[in-house]
Amino acid sequence: MSPLLAQVQIHQRTQDTCVSDNGFCPGWIADNFDRYVDPFFQHVLLTVVAVAIGFLIAFSLALLAYRRRWLVNPITQVTGVLYTIPSIAAFFLLLPITGRGFLTAEIALVSYVLLIIFRNILTGLDNVPEDTKDAGRGMGLTDRQLLWRVEVPLALPEIMAGLRIAVTTTVGLATLAFFAGAGGLGEQIFADITFKSNVVTAGGLAVLLAALLDGGILLVQRMITPWTRVVAAR
Amino acid sequence: MNFSDSAHPPGPSARPQAATLEFREATKRYPGQDEPAVRELSLTVPSGEICVLVGPSGCGKTTAMRMVNRMIDITSGDILLDGQSVRERRPAELRREIGYAIQQIGLFPHLSVADNIGTVPRLLGWHRDRIRARVDELLELVSLDPAETRGRYPAQLSGGQRQRVGVARALAVDPPLMLMDEPFGAIDPINRERLQNEFLRLQREIRKTVVFVTHDIDEAIKMGDHIAVLQKGGHLMQYAPPAELLMQPANRFVEDFVGADRALKRLALQRVRDVDLWTAPLVRAGEPAAEARAKLADSEVPYPLLVDDQGRPLGWLSERALAGERVTDELRSRPTPTLELEDVLRDALSDLLAEEAQYGPVVDERGAVTGVLSIEILSHALKTDPDEVPSGADAL
User: Fold this and answer.
1) ipTM of the complex
2) Residue A221: CB partners within 8 Å, gap ≥ 6?
3) Which end of chain A, C or N, has fewer beta carbons within 10 A?
4) pTM value?
């Protein structure tokens, strides 16, 4: 009976057969929904902070590599290594240094998204048509003006695509953040992994969060890149 | 500066309208290459003239042009803009004073037409209202409807419209010098001809100094006040007005480059407005047939031309149209090709041949018929003494 002890926390004081059978019980979900609210917002925070910091670092790296091409390979390799380290391994490797908690989880999550965002930003910048840049330079834009007024805006579709992949991936990965003691929906899932109602609710919330963030970014993208949606003439 | 002699309202810029450009033994040598890309190029472009750099690919014409606004730095020698060396100028500042239009146009796809045209004015810190007024003025100058066009993105324009916006953008701050690298290269032949004519018409108003790069000798002859023929390595073979280039090529290279059909090309130096057109027997539907027959008798053209109230051509009338008491609208054929006063004779001839027509009505800017051009007039123009052929610049 001892492996089932953990379930006692969630199953407490219930006579419901559905619940005692570990089934999918809408009634139980409705009654217990409030226990998912805090982990949900922890999860939002974990994801948004990781992607935001990851974006800032990756964006700086991409601008650097865009101007100094020789940096592309080293940056790709380093972020590539960070990308391949399994997150769980990263959590446990970091524990002795940063201890349990939010910081440890964020370091692992940020390292994971760097490569995705870096590659997309660089691709976006590289795809800016040569004649557009030539025209801009020929009209007297300085390198900095060209970057912020022409190159970055034209790279936005790829940049935003990178953010969407990063956000959905991070929502998934953050379910493991409880191994680092950072909470999140993962903690709820693993609190009673055999109870269908619990797994479906926590997992469903994670999927919903990924969809919401993804849709939000898509919406922002449509707002800031109106030229990509115009109907081409003739 | 004095704008009073200009046909269009002065731009909001207080710059001189045109600069003198001088290449002084300008040389571009790339490291690791024996032959310079441009070798000691010396030529002067007088203020307000179009200088065409023409030659086969690899002749250094684009390099020579890009040295002017320091997109490519000069290795030795110098380029002077109104007497001042471009080497003494900061590149970004210099470029803002020089209009720049390239083959692929390079419009910014993420900016509206208005923002594209307003790019350099914004860099120079113009007030928003002034930029808006200038954008509308320029759009009208290049024959685009401001209300319809200014809010559009480049992807929503046709190739010809994009080209016009590109020219408007290059003109935004009324620069004294324009650099144009195969600006009509990516346009289909029909629209290309129209854009060339439009630009020449525009140039007569704005009188900029223009450096125009092309590989097409016909375009060079049509557009240039002076033509510089370059050979591989940026050797200047000849620098002369088009007529002189056609009549007295300096050497075998120029002769070959100009082509065997030099005589025919001379037709490209004259415009429809330069020759004596025949009087068109213009009739309107419903007018007395006797009057129409009288007009027909006075004209060299054997067919009456039906026009509408504004004088625009509707078609050649059949004989039966004049048979009754009043003129009817029974057409023999459509009024094609309809020619414009600005068309060069070579294009006009080509249009006539394409339509298998002997006569083509010529219309003015409003579309009203002003005369008729015939194959006979053209063959007479071909026989004319070469010395009487005016250069493209004088064909005003």
Assistant:
1) 0.79
2) A156, A157, A160
3) N
4) 0.73
